[in-house]
């Protein structure tokens, strides 16, 4: 018997009609009064639907809606929220033609009810979008609509992680099909090898920012193509390639179908690098020659790398890629081998069997960055071979340190206090703004009481999770959970992806010392762990199991607990409720990390290895550093050393500070650190500060460059191509003669001045095309310049023919030390500073 299926939803009374609008925009998730409107419909049902606004409205009884339609207090709050919504979310932003910035990411963590994220990269992308919305940037974000998303974690009775993949209920998500000007649903397509791939285009609104999501679950696709948007980071290399082609090529086509002409495209990691090929194809198809199209594309692209180890960067074999890229290359009138060489370092192009998505992203982006100051240094060193004629300090990979979206992560209790004592813009501070004085004036007892209540809430939630978990200490008993965790003792949290380099079991290296801390009668402590291991990461799963089995074997399950199925909701409880946020990765393998920032805005104090963001954030006033020993190159020795450092910090500093109380039972020194932690995070590590940096350093210059490049039928782009052709043809002819110094360099002191003179040969090029510079700076033990500076030399006449004399007076206005200098020739101006591999002539 064939059935026709349909849903019957409650009829929303006219008085409550704004609830329908609100449920389709995730702005409600970071505006507490809006969230409260859904909670008040039915608090228990709200928990049951895991905060899903659309599902909530589909399940609420009709009678309850009729009741609230007559509730004056509820209607007053609804009206207030509607006014705020209209103030923050503008109807004109629905016009895609107004948008200039396209932000591509493989995952987005907007809210726990929208499971299209796995971890830190997705959470960062979500916070980036929310901050862009608050700042009203003309941005559209692009991702994939995963039908199963990332896995839900289940622990078996032995503490081993298992994965389950429940289907995302698309009809219960705040999504709408994208439509064209004629009201027709938009479906994009492109050739995937020898067959067309079709993708439906959906839109999810996060405030003012549309998140454009692609979905291949269509009848017009063969089964293997429908699977492309089933699981995030699922499948084999071929599936990953399909997903990344869909994100980059399909995502760009979706934006164009929506009427958007991106002026700047931001690739958040290498997954999105194929987007550049779609931009090239479009320009070439419009009649622009390939070299001119390439200039437009790479000069208006942004690339962010998040991976500080070479093995973590996505690569595909050239044999796998070739048939997929052949059709695209043909349509763009490009040689497929040339196209693939863009993703291979220049000195490996004849031998490499794989193409790197990170190299492709860096090669086709004028603006590139790591995600913390330390990660920027690591990235410059890791990718210096892409610019073989550059010193490491001048590798064009900068850094913009990650930040967190304060309204999404601040506890309600802290929000009340901050609203009372801090400036009105405390959650939206920009560069140069500070709330330090106001934070320090918050009464100690109020801040401490708010945090104590957050800790108690965390303990209650942890007990509920443990009661449901098969792998929990309560699973095989009739315990109620009342003895699981103590709401009044020092609570340390560790929650993140369980990868081996993050060392989730570092504490277990000294079991006796750990047990003495957990079972202490006078000053006890407890640990709350959470996190997922990648389904294929057996080592990460073993770390989780080791923690659980240690607690069982030593009967300390009430003081050391692992909470399963870590997601955004649990992350909020943890960063708001623990006292200390622990992080102990192997330095420098943590690119940034943002969970510690979320903890810090809530007054939770970080105790961490000096890696990622903490390397630049740490001061003794706002937290603790776990000291390492850079001379220990063996992992085993380093782990033992740093485990001992961690125990010393806990025993000698953290625990005494927490339990030292005044006559009112307030830990005054601890609260002082809480306040400094809040100041540090609100002043420097918010997503609005982060996005402001992206806007000022990358988006605004890239938009201006785009407008200049395409003006007057691409006149400026054509000029750059002509200049590039000249440099490619003749740069190798340049020659630098001996450099003479006006005095003996062995007797130089601070403040001295000396003159350098050199001769250069330009060949077919002319002085107006080139700069001759002195390049100098402090050197390391290998006599390599660490932090280079340059000084323009002045032309001092012709020697003969095409040889010119250049001079420069160099003033030693620097700190004392060992320095090196040389002379180089570079293209005039800064048009080629970031090109790969670039143009620099050094003395032979």
> What are the segments in which pLDDT stays under 50 over at least 5 consecutive residues?
none
Q: Kindly estimate the percentage of residues that lie in beta strands according to DSSP.
A: 15-25%
Amount of helix: 25-40%
Radius of gyration: 29 Å
For the record, give the distance between the C-alpha atoms at the N and C termini, rounded to a whole number. 84 Å
Mean pLDDT: 94
Largest sheet: 10 strands, mixed
Quantity of strands, as a count: 28
- Counting DSSP H or I runs of 4 or more residues, the number of helices is 27
Molecular shape: globular
Structural class: alpha/beta
In summary, what is this structure?
With 844 residues, the protein is α/β, with parallel strands linked by helices. It contains 27 helices and 28 strands. α7 crosses α27, α9 packs across α10 and α10 crosses α11.
Task: Give structural notes.
The protein is α/β, with parallel strands linked by helices and 844 residues long. It is built from 27 helices and 28 strands. The strands form six sheets. Strands 1, 2, 5, 6, 7, 8, 9, 10, 13 and 14 form a ten-stranded mixed β-sheet that branches. Strands 17-16-15-18-19-20 form a six-stranded parallel β-sheet, sandwiched between helices. Helix 10 packs across helix 11 (290-299), helix 19 (444-468) packs across helix 22 and helix 23 packs across helix 26. The longest helix has 44 residues, at 687-730.
